[in-house]
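I hope you will forgive my troubling you with a question about protein structure. Here, with my thanks, is the record as I have it:
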Amino acid sequence: MTPELVPSKTLKRAAHAERERLARAMTRNNERQAKLKTEMEALESEYRLLQERDHLLQSVGGELAADSQAEVDAEVPAHEILRGAQIREQAARLFYQHHGAGKALHYRVWFELLIESGVEISGKDPMATLLTNISRSPVVVRGAEAGTYAIDPEASDRLRKELGEFHAELVDLAGVIAREDEPAQRLLEHRAELLSSIQRHERLVAEADRVLGSSGGQTFARAA
C-alpha cells in the first residue's frame, strides 16, 4: 500500500468516534422502535376493547329501540286480516249482529261494516273477494235487488235436515253393500260421495251455528 493511502491516526480516531456515535444512534432507534411497538400494541388492544364496548352498546340500543317500537305497536290496535272462509263467517256474523235476519243489504254495506269493525280482507280487490266469499256462506241468501244479500235464520235447521238425509241414505247404502259379496264399483263411489257430502255439511252446520249463535240441534252418528 502506498503511503498516501494509509489512513492517518486522526482519521482512524474520527472514524472510530463516528461509529460509536452511529451505534448509540442505532441503539436509541431500536429502543424507540421497541417503545413504539409496545405503545402500538397497547393502542390496538385498547381499540379492540373500545370496539367491543361499541358493539355491546349498539346491541343494547337496538334492543331498546325494538322494545320502544313494540310498545308503540302495542298501543296501536292491529288490524285483523281475514282470508277465505274467515271472510264470509266474520261478515255474516257482523251482519246478523247488527241487522238480524230480516233485512237485505248491498254487499258494499257489508264491506264498510267489516272495515269499520277493524278488519282487513286479503286480496288485490278486497270488495270482490268479499262478494265471492259471502255468496258461498251457508247462511247467506240473495236479496230481491241486485247485489243485495240477507241472512237465512233457518240455515242451521235446513242444513241439519239435509245432513240427516245423507246419513239415512248412507245407512241404506251400507246395508246394500253388506249383502253383496263383491259390491259394484258404482256403489262404492256413491258411498264415497255420500261421505264427502256428510263431511261438507257437518262443516257448514258448524259454521252456521257459529254465525247464528245456535247451540246445535240433533246430532247424527256417522255410519260405518
In short: Residues 3-75 form one domain. The chain has six helices and five strands. The longest strand covers residues 148-151. Helices lie at 9-75, 85-99, 107-116, 126-134, 155-179, 185-212.
